[in-house]
Design brief:
Length: about 180
Amino acid sequence: MRMKMKNIVLTGFMGTGKSEVGRKLAERLGMTLVELDAEIEKAEGMTIKEIFSRFGESYFRDRETETVKRFEDRENIVISTGGGVVMREENMESLRKKGVIVCLTATPETVLSRTGGSDERPLLNVEDPLEKIRELLESRRPFYERADIVIETDSLTPAEVAEEIIEKMKELPGR
Ligand code: S3P
């Protein structure tokens, strides 16, 4: 009998490739992709950028937690999360219920080069985004480090990251 696979929860900083890797994984494994940010936008009828500018970050964080909870009992999904989801323990408890936590990492320079062309990330719309990235990465490091699987993405394509995740999942007990 084929063992049932756990959900795959992709965490990591902005620009580490969670959405793209999520698409590849879902395709490869025949799972459904859930993008938390897109779900929040759908529910609110606004972009993330609009939510931040109209209601502020803490409002966004509450919607994020609600959305995590909405999916906590679903199975056979790949969940691509927003970069800040790891900061609330209750989010991680929900996500761990049925999922393996994967964290994608990248250097501040890689993050900047992947996010630099867009103004859709309110936290990085500042005068010195590289400095901001370094600061946020440093303060979030302890949260990101708690993942079951950590993958450095700087020199990998999204398809290669997806393959590496699949390989590492095989080594996990009770996957
Ligand atoms: C955020 C990351 C964003 C989005 C919001 C806040 C963060 O998602 O949820 O702008 O706090 O790191 P991505 O990681 O998909 O860019």
